[in-house]
Amino acid sequence: MDWEGQKLAEQLMQIMLLAFAVIAFSAGYFTASFQTMILTYAGGVVLTTLVTLPNWPFFNRHPLKWLDPSEAEKHPKPQPSVNVTTKKKSIKK
């Protein structure tokens, strides 16, 4: 799953769980049944899991292009600069 696919999966998960929570609450309220509410929401969680958890092809629309190892050897890694200056402030009493 690529980065955009992960973002899409998270957005789908949040939208679907919120929608199923509203649907489950409404169904439970109108039927006056806590069991109906819980079963409706549990079904929504299972459906959301089936949609967002597997690595479906529509989550891989933006694949990353990796650099070939032979090409990577031609370019040196950037070295961290050592321009750290530490000054201690004098404490006035």
Automatic annotation (TrEMBL):
Family: Belongs to the SPCS1 family.
Listed PANTHER family: MICROSOMAL SIGNAL PEPTIDASE 12 KDA SUBUNIT, SIGNAL PEPTIDASE COMPLEX SUBUNIT 1
Recorded topology in the membrane: Multi-pass membrane protein
Pfam families: SPC12
Transmembrane segments: 12-32, 38-59
Name of this chain's protein: Signal peptidase complex subunit 1
Listed GO CC annotations: signal peptidase complex
Organism annotation: Cicer arietinum
